[in-house]
Amino acid sequence: MVTPPMVAQQAPREAWPDGPLLAYCADDFTGATDVMEAFSAAGVSTVLFLQPPGPAWVQRFAGTRCIGLATTARCQSPAWMDQHLLEAFGRLQAFGAPILQYKVCSTFDSSPAVGSIGRAIDIGTRLMPGAWSPMVVGAPRLRRYQAFGNLFAVVDGQGHRLDRHPTMAHHPVTPMDEADLRRHLARQTARHIELIDLVALQAGQGAAQLAALTADHPPTGAEAPVVLLDVIDEATLAAAGALVWQQRGAGLFSASSSGLQDALAAHWRQQGWLPARAALPVAAPAPAIAVVSGSCSPVTGAQIAWARANGFATDRLAIDRVLDAAQREAEIGRAVQAAIDALASGRSPLVFSAEGPDDPAVRGFEASAASAGLSRADAADKVGRALAEVMRRLLDRQPALRRFVVAGGDSSGAVAGALDIAALELLAGLAPGAPLCRAASALPARDGLELVLKGGQMGRPAFFGQVLQGRA
After folding, report:
1. How many whole angstroms separate alpha carbon 271 and alpha carbon 26?
2. Predicted confidence (pLDDT) per residue in 310-360, tens digit
3. Cα–Cα distance between 300 and 294 in angstroms, integer?
4. CA-to-CA distance for 224 and 22, rounded, in angstroms?
5. What is the value of pTM for the model shown?
6. Which residue has the higher pLDDT, 294 or 12?
7. Which residues are paired to 228 by β-bridges?
8. How far is CA 315 from CA 2, 94, 311, in A?
9. How far apart are CA 321 and CA 325, in angstroms?
10. Contact indicator for 329, 387 with CB cutoff of 8 Å
């Protein structure tokens, strides 16, 4: 008698779970909208809170699959993180999502003293019981790639290792002098840091390698090892997403860029839980927009130059006057009136504090701060608050103005706070990482405003024109 061959039994397919899928705390405001764009584009409903949500706001957005909270942690000290992040993570954990994320910039902006990602991991892993803390930083959508633990970014079609990146290698606060994220992160935390590289992921060996790594470091929760996952293309992206989702256990904490959202969405699409591609809505053109920029990035500098050459009314905010208590009010008032005059003439105003990293205002900023008797951090905060005040007064005096842009992460936080905006939802796509959002506010004049919080590295030279014309 011949015994028939055994037929392998496939494991039952996991069902698409109900309730929240992920909650995230962003280290700045611009990166927070990047996450919202990544998930919304995939078909995962997302809301971003700009202040800790009370019961009324939670009820308003009941049923949302992803919940975010924006903070200014990227420019803060470890002591600030100790004081504020545990509460922020705790509020998000209460939503019951299986993954709690600290959203970091895809250029890994951080140092032991400012925006320490390691400190955020040490705080967040206390709240989730997982045996590992995955880290996905590569995001091909944003032209960020991680290979063998090293981070690369593309600028103007040219790939750069991050310690040789034209902006990040010379960042005024968190310069990147090490592209190997294991070495960079090791300066910020004492916990074990491991890597599952692209070779293992491409070979389908991620789960086996993870089992070996976690066997070597069995403590869970607060002592869970960080495990970096290489991402260089759509295949490794989906493999990383599958590993995180399938090995989430009773709950994971992850410090990752929006590459984590892209990775999870790629895996969920493979499972048939999401549509093959969900297109973002297209925005209608606006009669006019207003822009305030505190970014020192060369990308934003090129965007300001394009705006000047294409009909925008560009106006430099005088740093020395803003930092001088006797002249501050007059300088803010001057900038507001100039913006109002521009709108009256049919032009969109753009108020900026710097035009690229080589701007004299950037090179001389420390001297300006010292002259005003301020630390660099306090001076930067004053500039951000001045830009926020310009936008607040402009919107108060021009109620017909309904669309605006803030360029720069720190400036975005200051403006959102000054306008009393409680939450954002995605309205339309513009450029990767910089979507058009709709504001939710208890103030009727602010509710429904359309805004873009743009990171310094995001967008092509004509970006402000795209926001005005409503085209992606």
Report:
1. 27
2. 999 999 999 999 999 999 999 999 999 999 999 999 999 999 999 988 889
3. 9
4. 19
5. 0.82
6. 294
7. 135, 195
8. 87, 45, 12
9. 8
10. no
Residue with tokens 């965007």: 303
Q: 248 Cβ partners below 8 Å, 6+ apart?
A: 98, 99, 130
Domains of the chain: 22-270 (3.40.50.10840), 290-420+450-469 (3.40.980.20)
Sheet holding 133-135, edge to edge: 133-135, 226-229, 193-196
pLDDT tens sequence across 184-221: 999 999 999 999 999 999 999 999 999 998 887 666 66
Q: Alpha-carbon distance 414 to 380, whole Å?
A: 11
Contact 23, 59 (CB under 8 A): no
Q: Which of 433, 50, 455 is nearest to 262 (CA)?
A: 433
In this structure, how many other beta carbons lie within 10 angstroms of the beta carbon of residue 340? 17
18: Cβ–Cβ under 8 A, 6 or more apart, which residues? none
